[in-house]
Amino acid sequence: MAxxxxxxxxxxxxxxxxxxxxxLHPEHGLGFAHSSADAAxxxxxxxxxxxxxxxxxxxxxxxxxxKGVAEKVSAGVPGAAQNFVEWIVDFVEDNVRGSFSGKNxxxxxxxxxxxxxxxxxxxxxxxxxDLIPYLFGQLMATxxxxxxxxxxxxxxxxxxxATFGMALTVFFLVLFYSIKIKGVGGFLGELTLQPFGKxxxxxxxxxxxxxxxxxxxxxxxxLFGNMYAGEMIFILIALLxxxxxxxxxxxxxxxxxxxxFHILIITLQAFIFMVLTIVYLDMAHQExx
Length: 289
Fold this sequence. Notes:
- The protein is mainly alpha-helical.
- The protein has 9 helices and 3 strands; from the N terminus they run αββαβααααααα.
- It has one domain (2-285).
- The radius of gyration is 22 Å and the shape is globular.
- It is found in: Cell membrane; Membrane.
- One of its GO terms (molecular function) is proton-transporting ATP synthase activity, rotational mechanism.
């Protein structure tokens, strides 16, 4: 993307916070959004192409790397890649053993996938905020597009659609195993008979219903909020020094300092999402009598 000197501060920030959206506009028909207002007007009938692309790309990278290491695994002295993968697998298994008391062979692979995938999506936040959007804008300019109308967000977890998609998937798994393990009657009993017994059914249903529905909401918003705030700080640092690709100088130093601190945040958010998934599934496997 071009320097922020060609646009106001508000336009620069808004440009970075707008997804590459493809959908059905009520006035312009089917196509890509040319502004944040266009993207908003598309509403439900739209897809954030950049979120889908980078999510699939990073998910494929995770599968390719782990599959490649698994195919070359050796019982002898392991290489660096094998050591790295074994460390991650052991780390995830330790958390599953410590937080999950049921028996389900799906939980550990799911936890590993969530941790690695969310971490990789978060890791995109460490790239210079203007680098990939600028290159993509120049590429689209060769096809006649105006770079200021070309949007691209490279961090999928700064899109609430992505975080809510993952959180709802976990939520549906929680519902599925709650009904599978406890039966429909047992699951409904949890919602209506606790904590005040059969005489407090309305209050029980309200309290337990809110508690159940808050799980995917908090799971999604926690990840989105932290990553969105981190991305905003990177954008503001770049804007402070005129925008453009910040790699050196005082702005580059500030970006580097924040990036070092941000490594802790992106790792912690992937870890929290994984642990809460394990805990929620453990609760779904517990029978209450």
